[in-house]
Amino acid sequence: MFDFADPTLMGYAQKLHDTIAPSGVVIYRARAGEVAPVLEVLVNTNHPVGRTLDTLLVPRLTIGHLVVEMNCELIIDDTLIHPLLKGSAAVTEMGIMAYIGVPYRVEGQVVGGISVVHQHRRQWANEHIQAVRDVARHLEHMAEVRHAQGLRGAPMPDAAPDHSRL
User: Fold this and answer.
1) Share in percent of the chain as helix, strand, coil (round to 5)
2) Tens-digit pLDDT profile for residues 130-140
3) Helix or strand or coil: residue 139?
4) What is the distance between the alpha carbons of residues 126 and 130, in angstroms, rounded to a whole number?
5) Which of 112, 107, 94, 116 is nearest to 26 (CA)?
6) How far apart, in whole angstroms, are the C-alpha atoms of residue 106 and residue 126?
7) pTM score above 0.90
8) Angstrom distances, CA of residue 39 to CA of 4, 129, 153
9) What whole-number distance in Å separates Cα of residue 98 and Cα of residue 121?
């Protein structure tokens, strides 16, 4: 479906970075993990967190795994007080203080997402949130077309549980 460093994905990530001016943008695909999804970084801009990103991100260091597990977007202005995140390693070790996360799907199944992170608390503007949603919809369309054409790249991840009750 998407490969590492796909130039189209990099273009979308860079456009979001230029528009929103966060610490960084990460586009990832989800892989089934033993306990929670593992996120495979496809592209990222700048240095989204205070250290070098690994290609595979374990759940305890991410917020994106929640986007995949819960099958919903997360918009967080201050991770230090958010009930899902305060005290998490994504905050204390990775330094993520504000976050926008939007999933993208193939045939209704979450297969990845976009994370926009900032290393300072920040109130996200509605137009910035919408820009991330728009890119996620473009990724869905691209993924659906590639999937239908058999251009799958790496194998599809296992289905993530649907926790869309939020």
Assistant:
1) 30, 25, 45
2) 999 999 999 99
3) helix
4) 6
5) 116
6) 26
7) no
8) 12, 21, 16
9) 5
